[in-house]
Amino acid sequence: MKILKAEIEDLQEIYRLQKEAFIIEAKIHNNYSIQPLTQTFEEVKKEFGNAIALKAVNEDGKIVGSVRGITDNSTLYIGKLMVHPDFQNRGIGKKLLSSIEDMFPGFRYELFTSTKSDKNLAIYIKNGYREFKRESSPVGVDFVYLSKNAK
Description:
By secondary structure, this protein is α+β, with helices and mostly antiparallel strands. Helices cover about 35% and strands about 35% of the residues.
């Protein structure tokens, strides 16, 4: 498994991966209108232009995971951390998270997930993230925001 910087040529595959990975979140909430599922390819392309994106590539060259980050001052906002359902529970998400953090030493790291995403919350807390707020979204999903101080 290799973690590499994602390139514009990877976007179509990452977009497909996003739909496959976030369907699990939609099922947890019985809500298929969550942003990662409704986001268009054009929106992903625009987001990619403003973000750093990493990809996890397996030995067959298939993208099986990805993460995006955007910086603002000294904070790295981490989002769209995803792993293909067939490759989950193998440490790929943890490796992606650690890799994007390593690219921004000295930064504060911030991310969010659903309050019902127990697996995600466990990974983030195990990796040093702490909750600092909760918020409801217009589509009826409650989010927990977590942060971690610089490495």
